[in-house]
Amino acid sequence: MSARVPVLQAGLRLMSRDLRLAMRRAGDWLQPLVFFLVVTTLFPLALNPELSRLRDVAPGALWVAGLLSSLLALELLFREDSLDGSLEQLAISGVPFAWLLWAKTVAHWLLTGLPLVLVAPLAATALGAPAAAIPGVLAALLLGSLALSQLGAIGAALTLGLRRSGVLQAVIVLPLAVPVLIFGARATALAIAGEPIAPPLYLLGALVVLGVTLAPLAAAAAVRISLE
Amino acid sequence: MAWTWFHRFGSPPYFYRVAGTLTPWFAWPAGVLCVAGLVAGLALAPPDYQQGDGFRIIYVHAPAAWLSLMVYTVMAVSAAVGLIWRMPVAHALSAACPVIGASFTFVALVTGSLWGRPMWGTFWEWDPRLTSELLLLFLYLGYMWIRSAIEDTARADRASAVLAIVGVVNVPIIHYSVLWWNSLHQAPSVMKLGRPTMPASMLVPLLMMLLGFTLYFAALLLVRARGELLRRERSTRWVAEVIGGAGP
Domain limits of chain A? Predict the structure, then answer.
């Protein structure tokens, strides 16, 4: 990618490159999704399979599974590009690095966050959520997964190239993800109970705005430090 | 130049010397205040009309909880200073913080749950304050671990600085989300710290303990930062002079 490429276009090209690369290795991107489904299956097995009982734990199960699956997916965000050196090339390309990372993170969300949102109705129904609750569950997960991707990018950037980075990444990201978990699970619980879900959704939206605007700056600083 | 003092503090030998001189000035008042505060709080203050003597744990709990947040702020601010002005001394200060902060957080958690046993009837209640304190402990642990996971000191400094800054932005968000989450589950907490009716005989010892703990932290921070500087600069001449010579 030459430095002459306009800034906006550079980000879009990077995004489409990431998507195309991922399409050629679908297995990588499907794993977190399957993980999400497997974990949500474990809850009925470990608890009481009675649907009315499951309904109480459904929000927690969905969100804890979603959070863990998004952590698992983080490995795919920078790993390949840092191994083959293209991340370094991006950092010195002259295009604002935070913008490029923003594009990468959005591509990553399209590949891992969005599919998770799309299969969530399946998992929610299996956990006893009524059909009327599905739009609310979708909206909450849509916002929540976006915020988690942005937050996760910081964790992935900080632990880039470290040994046993997976556990460290989890310890770093999970406490920071608590607000997303609280508001997301609350919105889901309200949706399942048939109550208005706007208040927690607004707060989730605020977290998304905060993540989308500030997280790439922190992630860019962290990747630069890791590349030194 | 008004900024000369700032640059002078950026010099490790100078900081080492000044910190050594300052430490007793913090340590002695801290010791006196803590002893006096404990005597006044544990023996002289009247028992609470509702909680009896159980409330007295506040004289350790509240200062520890206050410092658990303050240490995090100091850590993040000095990390940011280190990151922005590339000051090794600021990074050393930041590196000296997490163990102290995690210890205060731990003390606050333990005393909180000890207090909860007779007052709430359980060691652990998902009270917003206790919960966000627990999350703060996890933040400290993450900071410590990323430091120990990166071998190169300069990189560890800068990576952990980014984490500390991200964390300090998140601490209020986490706190309020936990507060909000819990307010939907149960009635507001039993404990109201800002109760204006606290009589002076209870309040004065508390303030003494708060000030004493804060000074103790300052002294501890300086001692740990000096040790950290010696470790980091072990191959330089000034350290050799300090260690091998007639003292600082």
Answer: 7-227
